[in-house]
Specification:
The protein is built from four helices and five strands; from the N terminus they run E-E-E-H-E-H-H-E-H. By secondary structure, the protein is an alpha/beta fold. A hairpin with a 4-residue loop joins strand 1 and strand 2. Helix 1 runs parallel beside helix 3. The longest helix has 21 residues.
């Protein structure tokens, strides 16, 4: 695994909860892929923030090194700090409550297992070009999902 794929992801809803969208920008050498999608019904910011890296990682066709950038501390902390404890505790939080979005956490774990993923947090709306583009793509995904559901 010598190729490095740099991924920036974003997700959100308007309102939260409500219709939502996700976006991802994947870069490897000179290749760029933009992805987006959405849910026209009721979803949440956190579900869309989780869906973006899942979809990006699942789109990769072979194992690679991934530098994954997200502006969601929920996603970054969840996958790097909390998920193994949740799994060990039967998908319960330390407060003995069921983990929210467990279906997506399991899917993200499986997607990460195919690659060597290093996670980075980036401040949202801070001028990082690919993070800004991921935000635009997330909005497009939400708008397209709403439009096709009419």
């Amino acid at each position: 695994m010598t190729d490095v794929v740099i991924i920036h992801t974003d997700g959100g809803c308007r309102p939260n909860p409500g219709p939502g969208g996700w976006g991802a920008v994947l870069r490897m050498r000179e290749h760029v892929r933009e992805m987006c999608g959405g849910e026209p019904g009721e979803t949440s910011n956190n579900r869309m923030e989780l869906t973006a890296p899942i979809m990006a990682l699942e789109a990769l066709t072979r194992p690679v090194i991934v530098h994954l950038h997200t502006d969601s501390t929920y996603v970054r902390n969840g996958i790097t700090k909390w998920v193994l404890g949740w799994e060990r505790n039967g998908w319960m939080t330390s407060a003995k409550q069921p983990v929210k979005n467990v279906d997506l956490w399991k899917r993200l774990q499986a997607a990460c297992a195919q690659h060597q993923v290093e996670w980075f947090w980036v401040k949202g709306h801070s001028g990082v070009a690919d993070n800004e583009l991921a935000d635009v793509l997330a909005t497009r995904g939400m708008e397209e999902a709403i439009a096709t559901s009419r």
